[in-house]
UniProtKB/TrEMBL annotation:
It comes from Streptosporangium lutulentum. GO terms for molecular function: DNA binding. This is DNA-binding LacI/PurR family transcriptional regulator. Residues 1-55 form the HTH lacI-type domain. Keywords: DNA-binding, Transcription, Transcription regulation. Coiled coil: none annotated. InterPro entries: HTH_LacI, LacI/GalR-like_sensor, Lambda_DNA-bd_dom_sf, Peripla_BP_I. It holds the Pfam family Peripla_BP_3.
Length: 345
């Protein structure tokens, strides 16, 4: 089945069919509908190879797939990828996945993809201080957007990015704990230097200070994981002035903190049992949080993915006014998370 067959069936020119497929805004609604009905009736499918030769576009957006890690927090990236794939399809794009273990190996992977598949654009994840990937792409004038803020950037315009306000999420969680009577609210997060981790810690610290509570002695830093979260929580719960609530930078840490609380008779259980309540709140609202009754901060991952694709679509379509090479506000999207309350708090 060819474009000529569709044109003959719809009683229009080949150019009109091409416009319906590639530039539908140029075709009157009645004609466009008739052509689409013919495409459906004949089962016509446009040749991607031919379209790429004609337009110079592969209709591919490439992004890295993250390792599974502990099987808890890794599911967050899976949800983002699902939203990215679904949103990209709505704009006529497909998502191309690749793997990499650090910045330099990702740059090498991107270079290989450009030679083999010529993706139109890239979505970078896991932004961090000293991130060299963005400069590499910008120097080559390759369209890209990051899911995550540029935590440290050289002078000059910022690149397009989408992120979730982690500080706002931990602030909301801290206010909830304050409202329920807690004052000894501990925070378990990642070592200083992680942009995401520092942001989440800042929301907790500022909210406690605003409530007249000194956060000194209530902060523990550790690598991410259930076992490390349990150990850090134990330090806070066994202190001379123990914490009565624990706010964690991830659900993995929070799950470990809940184990520590339960072993001291203050945890919660899905069946409603447990001793003196020790509130625990995580971050990311993973499936583990939902299954165990863990209160957690939820990120709008589908919305974040949709924003990434929408930004790229505008850039690729040459809408410089809204795509904003000048780093205008339309290229910087900061989304708000929400606190999902369950038994643990």
């Amino acid at each position: 089945m060819t474009i000529t067959d569709v044109a003959r069936h719809a009683k229009v020119s080949r150019q009109t069919v091409s416009n319906v497929i590639n530039a539908p805004e140029l075709v009157r609604e009645g004609t466009r509908r008739r052509v689409l009905e013919s495409i459906e009736a004949l089962g016509y499918r446009a040749s991607q190879a031919a379209r790429q030769m004609r337009t110079g576009r592969s209709r591919l957006i490439a992004t890295r797939i993250e390792p599974a890690e502990d099987g808890i927090n890794g599911t967050i990236h899976d949800r983002f990828l699902h939203g990215l794939t679904e949103s990209a399809a709505g704009f006529g794009y497909r998502v191309l996945l690749y793997t990499a273990h650090d910045d330099q190996s990702e740059i090498a992977a991107v270079d290989d993809l450009l030679a083999a598949y010529e993706p139109d654009a890239f979505v970078l994840t896991g932004t961090h201080h000293g991130d060299v990937r963005t400069a590499w792409l910008a120097e080559r004038r390759l369209p890209f957007v990051t899911f995550g803020r540029p935590w440290s950037m050289p002078e000059g315009p910022s690149h397009p990015w989408v992120d979730v306000d982690g500080a706002a999420g931990t602030a909301a969680a801290t206010r909830h704990l304050l409202d329920t009577g807690h004052r000894r609210i501990g925070f378990i997060g990642w070592p200083t230097g992680s942009g995401v981790g520092d942001d989440r810690r800042a929301g907790w610290a500022r909210t406690l200070a605003a409530a007249g509570v000194d956060p000194a002695g209530l902060d523990r830093t550790t690598d991410d994981g259930v076992a490390t979260g349990e150990k850090a929580a134990g330090d806070l719960l066994d202190a001379d002035r123990p914490a009565t609530a624990l706010l964690c930078a991830s659900d993995s840490l929070a799950l470990g903190a809940s184990h520590a609380a339960l072993s001291r008779g203050g945890g919660w259980r899905a069946d409603g049992g447990g001793g003196t309540p020790i509130a625990v709140i995580g971050f990311d609202d993973t499936s583990v949080a939902r299954a165990t009754g863990l209160t957690s901060v939820s990120q709008p991952l589908s919305e974040a993915a949709a924003c990434c694709v929408a930004l790229l679509a505008r850039i690729l379509d040459g809408d410089e006014a809204s795509a904003g090479e000048d780093g205008s506000a339309t290229t910087r999207v900061l989304l708000q998370p929400s606190l999902v309350r369950r038994q643990s708090a």
